[in-house]
Amino acid sequence: MLVRKNVAEYPKQKVHHEDLMVVYQDGAATRADYWDNEGHVIHYSVAVSDGGKKYVFLGEAQPGKPRFRLSYTLTSPTKVALSFEIAPPGGEFKPYISATAHKK
Questions:
Q1: pTM assigned to the model
Q2: Spatial distance between the Cα atoms of 56 and 30, rounded to a whole number of angstroms
Q3: Residue 4: which of 22, 17, 16 has the closest Cα?
Q4: Could you read off the pLDDT of 8-60 as tens digits, one per residue?
Q5: Can you point out the beta strands (E) in the chain?
Q6: Widest CA span in the chain
């Protein structure tokens, strides 16, 4: 099991964001559950590719609701690129956030 906790402050918008994601094995499948302080709950299936360098978290489809896709790609031993995409109900994924994170 892997636990990721995130806190982000957006002072100009006066927004405080906290989220928690738990990644776990469900039999042979890798899954993840996400919760945040805005009331979002996302249940993801997780696919690993490129020799363990790319992780794609695909949110479950729910009728009439948007779908989410979160991707992490290891670009160096200390750096990861991430993207978060949203698809409207029945629509195509579009980028929402792109970022790079690095190990201190």
A1: 0.90
A2: 11
A3: 22
A4: 898 999 999 999 999 999 999 999 999 999 999 999 999 999 999 999 999 99
A5: 2-10, 15-26, 29-36, 41-49, 54-59, 67-76, 79-87, 94-102
A6: 44
